[in-house]
Amino acid sequence: MSNIFVQRYLAEKLSLKKMAGNITRLSSTLAKSSIQLNPYQIHAAMYAFDSPLQRGAILADEVGLGKTIEAGIALSQLWAEGKRRILVICPASIRKQWQDELSNHFGLNSEVIDGPIFGGKVNSGDKIPLTYEGIFIVSLHFAYKKKGLIEKQPWNCIVIDEAHRLRNVYKSRDASKMGWEIRNIIKNTGKLLLTATPLQNNLMELYGIASFIDDKLLGTSYSFKKRFVEPLTENNELSQAKLKELRLLLKGDEKIGENKVNGILTRTLRKQVTDYVKFTKRKTFTQDFTPNDEEIELYNKVSEYLQRPTLAAIQATQRNLMVLVYRKLLASSSFAIAGTLEHLITFLQKELELRETYRLNKKTPTNLFNQYDVEDEGLEEESEELEVENIQEKKKGKTRVDEALFSDDDIQAEIDELKSYYDLAIKIKENSKGKALIKALGKIFEIARDKKWPQKAVVFTESRRTQEYIRKLLEREGITYTIFNGSNNSQEAIQAYRGWCKEFPESAEQGSPTVNIRQALVYDFQVNKAVLISTEAGAEGLNLQFANIVINYDLPWNPQRVEQRVGRCHRYGQKYDVLAVNFLNTKNRADQRVLELLQYKLHLFDGLFGSSDEVLGLLESGVDFEKKILEIYQTCRTSEEIDKAFNKLQESIRSKITDEMQNVRKQLTEYFDEPVRELFEHTKFEMNKSLSEFDQELLRLCRLFYGPNKLSSINKEETLYHFKEGTVEKTLAFRELKDIEVGKYIRMNKENQIASKAMNESLKLNTTPIPLNNFQYSNSGKRYTLIEPLVNKEGIIYLFKLKVIGIEEEDILAPMTFIKKGKNYEPVSLEIADELLTLEAEEQAGKIDESPLEEDAVLNLWEDWKKQVLSKYKRRNERLYDREVDRINRYYQDYSLRVDDRIKKSEGEKEELNRRRDNSADLTERRELHKKIQEIELRLDRLRLEQIKLKQEANELKQKDYEELEKKFELKSEEELIAVTLFKVI
Fold first, then answer.
1. Domains and CATH numbers, the chain
2. N or C, where is the chain less crowded by C-beta within 10 Å?
3. pLDDT tens digits for 113-122?
4. Whole-structure pTM over 0.90, yes or no?
């Protein structure tokens, strides 16, 4: 049965805007999430919202704690609040992962935009990407190339993942051009930076990353060196004081409570969250194989071919990229390289045809042949990270062999040579590594049976042709499999998708078909198959924690790609140790050294989380590492040369982080263990309380709005409901979903259509004339000591809403409640009123036109309460205001510090020269010294003029910042009487 007053009250309460730091702001987002969120992740998201003046924050948790999830919570909340201009900037290799996680965990659709997609949309007349509402995911290089367009957009939030790649921005514009430009174009937008390594070898790296969030907080780069870096070189009282000062700037108060002022960096360690997350280990298994004579001959011949300084089939401008890809395919299988050899032959034959056409027609032919149509799903990342300029445009343009370098006879000779390699490749029907795979699967499935592991393995390859070969091998052996690649358009994939849609109708209605078919294939593997055969596309974004065997059929040279592969299974939710399986070619010394380097030096396959934050952070770009390995393959021919080169590479990547720097990082960025446990427990309590209240209030509103005919309980706890309205029939959950329920039931949240309809319609209700309500206390089964004295008494509630407008906006509901005593009405506390409104209420027949209470009594109570509330906001603002004034003063105080120091140094030099001149008996020497003194005086004049100019500039800019600050801290309020009801407690 409907209830005008209670519905309006509940709808208003569920719609309230809340400030950062208030966990109720996240209630609907937490309910909407399809995964179990941990307290430390909620804390990180709240910290991001609560950064000073909402400039943003650095989320710097250790690897494996879910920084993407933390950012996803924040983005989901912004989306729910209508702030829908969002940009995610990340390495190219994890764009798909971002898209999948936002869709799967938070129901947020997004667009991955790269060069071809951008150009295609523009050329087809579509809206220009990035210029409309949505979540856009782009690579670092794309953001750099489109910096002008990005700078013009009114973004609500920008996320930068793996932000440590930009940490050298502190050096100079020339040393980090991309970092400088990206920092400049996003400086006026709230942002989130994600990195597990905010500080590696140098405090200036931390300064560089922090400057993306707030370019004034830590001063100028010069003043930061003087104020913090130089004092910390000594271990004394001054250095300890400086560490505390810097920690306060970075991390804020670190208190629990509404009056705390946050900093810009939060970092949680794995050891601090073992109460919430179970971490399993990685183990490694190596399967040797020995290629046969034909395989060795093919490898050696193609390898020697690729080592030549010039090749007709490969343009010099793209040589590094293409040779890297061809070597990947050569190591993958004879089937992978056979297709590539055929492709190169066709390319050169086409070139000869074009030359002949030109000689006959005297017209410059247009080459429509795509040299870059190589079979490698990871090509785009290499092309971006190696900064191959305009590769996508070159794909469409003219690709010709230089006639000055290669005659027709040269090209024909190369064709004949490639044909001989191709003939050799297609003669090979079985690969030794393929046989080793079947052997390895037998061994590891036996291990899995003994250990009671799920017998499921994920096989990764970098080639679709190799994938097809593995498929045939498994089929022949009777091993069930699921195929996963970049297109996923096979009949088997479509069949799996249809089955998934029937099983999970609610999930099928959400998300894009591309994302859903990926989920369908994962489900097919989870439920029906023993092996998932995935190309590189599968290493991005998939959650495969139900499997714990990862097989690298061909091993990437890029450590970050290896980490992504193993991380598909070794992630949050994994119950077992993860076994990483690699293959060792006993006849290839370079391959042996690559595996040794990744396994024993970088520790990618052992321990709790594989490679340490320090080592992966030190590499910065995995592609740079890949290039170094390629150089060894290209230049070394003997085992001795190979060993020497790999030894040198190992030395170059030795972690340079010192014990002293590790200690500095700990003191600056990490929470102390005991306080952080208290913080997370507090967050957990508040999170559970907030979610419980949210579910109860949303359920109560929906029951009142839809009534028992449309909404009926189907479980004893009354948390699952059957909904039927017209042709729409759903199962609704007003609680967290169990794993088996995800995709089958709807987890209710404010964005759900059923809930939003109830809220929107109830917000239109008004209580004129005034309704009468009976609050059911005696039948509630609850005992509230505050309510019991009110039983059988009458009263009236005036529901007000106060909107506080300052740095942020916040809404507060205030039920001003009066109890009738004789002929008079006396006010009761808001605490009692809030308890009263949790009771079920039954609207009575009849209404009254006028309130029995005098208006002055209501307004006096309201004004007194409002005054107290605004006073609290003013006190919080004062603390934040003082911090901002300190920040501005500190920055401009040091504005001319570099010139000040140069003046001080020059004055010291002048004083010393004057002393020497006065004490000299040699006229020639005195004249020389006098000349130097005059030069210094001229220099001092110039420096003092520059100093005056800088100080004047600093004063003007400081005044401007003060004026902006005053505008932000101006506190306003709006008030509204929402609803009124007379009541009786029974």
1. 36-277 (3.40.50.10810), 292-427 (no CATH), 430-615 (3.40.50.300), 697-765 (no CATH), 766-986 (no CATH)
2. N
3. 998 899 999 9
4. no
